[in-house]
Amino acid sequence: MGILNKLRAEFIDIIEWTDQTSDTMIWRFPRYQAEIKNGAQLTVRESQVAILVNEGQFADIYPPGRHVLETNNMPILTTIMGWKYGFNSPFKVDVYFVNTKQFLNLRWGTPNPIMMRDPEFGPIRMRAFGSYCFRIDAKDPTKFITNVAGTSGEFTTEGISEQLRNFVITKFTDHLAESKIAALDMAANLNEFSGALCASLKDDFAEYGIELTKFLVENISLPEAVEQALDKRTSMGVIGNMGAYTQMQFADSLMAGAQNPSGGNNPAGSAMGMGMGFAMAGQMAQQVMNPQNQQFQGAMPQYPPAGPQYPAAQYPPAGTPPPLPPPPPPQPMFHITVNGMQQGPFGPMQLQQMAQQGSFMPDTLVWTAGMTAWAAANTIPALAPCFGALPPPPPMNV
Question: What predicted TM-score, i.e. pTM, was given to this entire model?
Fold first, then answer.
């Protein structure tokens, strides 16, 4: 087989490379003992560059086209070999084909969350991912062979993508921290992020003989807990009047309880419903007694006219309404913390509804006017009714 290979090599005089892959960057033309015949035909296609390497030294570089390997078109190799009068015998040289096309859609992403200080949320962790495109510098392809590929006969993007990804993540982390852009404004600045990082990474890629052609930041995301807190804040902003929303929720719960035949079998739920019903009735009574309410002004009782039975000196003039009781003391409004974020203020009825839904817990920190520091909800006497009707935890199965 060795003799057949040598004879076959003597008759082969066409040197070319047809790339059947999408990630090969450098390919060395296989030849028996690296012998090239004088007058061999070298075909270099578009998006390729051919390099002759003689005994470890770079010789001639050929752009796309058809080339005849003779003394007159190999000036550097001729000088190295000392061929003053031409040659007819085969010569030993390695032929490397360099792929100068763009390598597209190489992915990058942060393996761990990036800790940064947000101007609105404080310390948060963020993740990001995207893609980039690059190609070997066609003006000086020898730099890539010297610094990266070496003597490898076939080099693919897999051999360098991890190192390039490290460059990207380091630059992105530094740029994200220095930008001081709020987390909620990140999506509006992805294009600016991409352009700035592309310009910053070009020099790092150029050290390896690579030209960065495109860099994209596709997404910058927040932790799941922060996203849930933002969803709750957005929902509260859409609701607007929390008092009206609570009344609507209460009415819906009464309707659902009436439609559920088994709802009366739950003592804790019945007690909670009765308590909320009494509270709602009290609110409606206050509205009825409020003289500012135009709906009930015509139904206010009047004194009878003064007469012998009611001396005018001891009784108010006719038509004078009776004195009203003093208004009830205002209910305290509490601020609460949910997932490290301040929300509120809420009244006791709203907090009772939230406790029933599971979003307000006994250990939730609360604060209201007059308190010197935040405290757990179960230590505030005014909030004790919020948790008094909650059932105890179920017993553990042995």
Answer: 0.54
